Amino acid sequence: MAVSFPIPSYFTAIFIISRLMSIMGISKHLNNKLLPPLDNITDKLSLDPSAIESASQDFGHIVKSIPKAVLQPSSIADIASLINFSYNSSIPFTIAAKGHGHSVRGQAMANDGVIVDMTSMKKHRNGTGIWVSNDGVYADVGGEQLWIDVLNATLKHGAAPVSWTDYLYLTVGGTLSNGGISGQSFRYGPQISNVYEMDVITGKAEIVTCSPNKNSELFYAALGGLGQFGIITRARIPLEPAPKRVKWIRMLYNDFTAFTRDQELLISINGRHDSHALGYLEGSLLMDHGSPDNWRSSFFPPKHHPKITSSIINHRIIYCLEVVKHYDYQTQNTVDKELEQLLKGLSYMPGFMFEKDVLYAEFLNRVQRGELKARSQGLWDVPHPWLNLFIPKSQIQRFNDGVFKGIVLEGNITTGPVLVYPMNRKKWDDRMSAVIPDEEIFYTVGFLHSSGFDDREAFDDQNKEILKFCEEAGIGVKQYLPHFTSKDEWVHHFGSKWETFQQRKFQFDPKMILSPGQRIFNNN
Ligand code: FAD
């Protein structure tokens, strides 16, 4: 844990300011202008080795970037003061908000800069980090809050957000800077499509409230903006009445064409208020180098493992379609009939449908059980050379042939969970910074590998091979949670959005202070 500076605080404060200024190479009188005061945050700036060490790492355990200091803010003003100080310095230093550090390639790091440890806002908000409106139609949520806490707080009001990530121990600011996708996205859009308003501190230290109608340029810039335009300190998230329970179903396929045809059929019913629509749809691969269950979720009853395993051995690759239908007291007598109707005529292998009936919250928090298990086996804090892609629908069959059945199946590595499921483009707003393929339906594919500390290279090689295949085959792939090492690659990634992205950077963070770990504008 980071140490904050005890008594005598005045002398400590002077020491920290001087030290920070000297390590950042800042002189106090610049352009005849005195730098803005930092005194209000000196006791929150930590140079403690343990704070620095923790800010140098992330869930990926691949990149290590060492910051000069860590800010543990207790207010929005603290964060604004830090940015203001950098902005007015002759040589501005970089600053990265660190949510829960669940990036895998150093995106929340700042080499030689300052990390804003957003979780410390949580401690200091005195329980006011999540506020549900009296009519229960929205929640005002601190950017540092974890989605699991948002779920628990809103459920007390019988309400909940509608769009989630698979794993809930991620921060609101962190997922809104990327997208926030899961099995609800086909119907409700990603989390970035489910925000009414935000407070953002820009790279010029301006504290701005933005929404589709007010300061909309910043609003759309920050959504999926990879932390480039400002630090999100509050988001207003729409809520709907929370379902009580879910019917949770997995169906297994040995035929990819049938699997994707059924997925696309099911996501074609996608009205937000269409009571016939599913609440969630995903898909994944089961392969002979894995067990039917993995750290991400255990589902299949043990007594069925032998038959599933033997089917995997026979076919080498099995596709698992996973759906959920929400229900509550009013619909508990009709939900089974509704589901039967929806799933009638699907082409999964006979005898390979499995069902569970669980509380809504238990379903949403399903990945945590896997986390606890992985932790107990020492398999959580290991390298995670993940690769997340968006693939246009027209190319998904070629991707299956070339990547799943080619590179992955023939590869020599033990694959972690591999997700594959479609989404509807119309649920995304093109004004947002997030980048997706051009087609109306596109798939997300996630290779969620865990490796040892010694054999990571094999996973990286496979990821490179997949990207090379996509490039050569003209698949038109876009990376989700993107990671690139050169500006050219970023320009290519953003495509027609690059000009706007760059202009917005000049507008909101002209000194290139924020989120340098993304390596978009701070690429040296
Ligand atoms: P960090 O990793 O700390 O930060 C991510 C980026 O956002 C950095 O650039 C950082 O500087 C910036 N940032 C952080 N906070 C703010 C803020 N308040 N304002 C502005 N910028 C900020 N993603 C999905 O979409 N769907 C999933 O189902 C999903 N499942 C996951 C499961 C696991 C086990 C893990 C480890 C990750 C998963 N992710 C998923 C990825 C996740 O969305 C990203 O890691 C994301 O970065 C959120 O993590 P974080 O809150 O720890 O952010």
TrEMBL record:
- What does the record give as cofactor? FAD
The catalytic activity of this protein is classed by the Enzyme Commission as 1.5.99.12
Which Pfam families does its entry note?
Cytokin-bind, FAD_binding_4
Keywords per UniProt: FAD, Flavoprotein, Oxidoreductase
Q: Which InterPro entries match?
A: Cytok_DH_C_sf (IPR016170), Cytokinin_DH_FAD/cytokin-bd (IPR015345), FAD-bd_PCMH (IPR016166), FAD-bd_PCMH-like_sf (IPR036318), FAD-bd_PCMH_sub1 (IPR016167), FAD-bd_PCMH_sub2 (IPR016169), FAD-linked_Oxase-like_C (IPR016164), FAD-linked_Oxidoreductases_BP (IPR050432)
Reaction catalysed by this enzyme: N(6)-dimethylallyladenine + A + H2O = 3-methyl-2-butenal + adenine + AH2
Start and end of every FAD-binding PCMH-type domain?
Answer: 63-242
Keyword hit for Glycosyltransferase: no
- Tell me which PANTHER family the record gives: CYTOKININ DEHYDROGENASE 3, GULONOLACTONE OXIDASE
The entry assigns this protein to a family as follows:
Belongs to the oxygen-dependent FAD-linked oxidoreductase family.
Q: What is this protein called?
A: cytokinin dehydrogenase
- Look up and give the organism this protein is from: Gossypium arboreum
Q: What is the lineage of its organism?
A: Eukaryota, Viridiplantae, Streptophyta, Embryophyta, Tracheophyta
